[in-house]
Amino acid sequence: MSRSRRVTRPLLPADPIYGNRLLSRFVNRVMKSGKKRTAELLVYRALEIIKEKGEDPIKVFEMAVSNAGPKMEVKARRVGGASYQVPTEVRGDRRIALAMRWIIQFAGKRSNKEFKSFADKLAVELLEASKGQGETIRKRDTVHRMADANRAFAHFKW
After folding, report:
1. Residue 83 maps to which CATH number?
2. Phi, psi angle pair for 47, to nearest 5°
3. Which uninterrupted H or E stretch holds 74?
4. What 3 state SS string does 49-61 have?
5. Which domain range does residue 48 map to?
6. Does residue 30 sit within a domain?
7. pLDDT digit string (tens) for 7-62?
8. In-domain check, residue 134
9. SS3 (DSSP) at 89
């Protein structure tokens, strides 16, 4: 295959209600087994809950995604029979993907006794992440600490 130029990804269509491409990506991440309408309803319900609390849902969502994204992570690199955890910078696209994945993951892990639906869990997780709190932020900090602890192996970057 030719490597003469980089492959450009097709642009996702903007979200029909809020006109936001990032939100459209998030809906696709929430979707399971091709049930996009169900995913849309869950995400829109979560944004409605945020709106009811007197916050701007799109600002909260964008802030949550930007806060939750890690700047550094570790990748395993094998050198001379030993495996090292090498800290590397996270590029923009992956940073957003990880943030979305973690928000959805930790929203799903919230207690069913406390919250009635996934939309409630998602709304609370987005609000907490936008304020720099919650499990998602704790996960990001753990990844940052791992990268910081393995700074000695930074010269193995590739």
Report:
1. 1.10.455.10
2. -70, -35
3. strand 72-79
4. HHHHCCCCHHHHH
5. 21-156
6. yes
7. 888 888 999 999 999 999 999 999 999 999 999 999 999 999 999 999 999 999 99
8. yes
9. strand
